[in-house]
Design a protein that fits this description.
Regulator of RNase E activity RraB; single chain; RraB-like_sf; Alpha-Beta Plaits; globular; alpha+beta; 4 strands
């Protein structure tokens, strides 16, 4: 199953749960990094791409720094997938990886 198909399925379940996905809303994309410098460099770059970024130290087995990149968009499978792929590619430059997306402020 492709990433686009996975996101379409997730959004379908959210929609079936009674959530209206037609209006634009803030979508949050989480990324994990091994060190603070990498997390902050990624955060700076995503801000230049029009995302809001929050860096937070977390206690996890892998990746001790979480960067949440947030952007207002219509949550369609195409929009979410495009953002997710763009951010994941950038995270890899800094040794990080994507850790999912969602709506922290529904």
């Amino acid at each position: 199953m492709s990433l686009l198909d996975e996101n379409a399925e997730i959004l379908k379940r959210i929609d079936e749960g009674g959530n209206d996905l037609t209006p634009s809303r803030e979508v949050d994309f989480s990324h994990l990094f091994a060190d603070r410098l990498s997390a902050e460099a990624f955060a700076s770059d995503v801000e230049h791409l029009g995302f809001r970024a929050a860096v937070e130290k977390v206690d996890r087995d892998e990746g001790h720094w979480d960067v949440t990149a947030s952007k207002e968009l219509v949550p369609s499978a195409a929009n979410v997938t495009a953002a997710e792929e763009q951010l994941h590619a950038l995270a890899q430059v800094y040794g990080g990886y994507a850790d999912g997306w969602g709506f922290m402020n529904p």
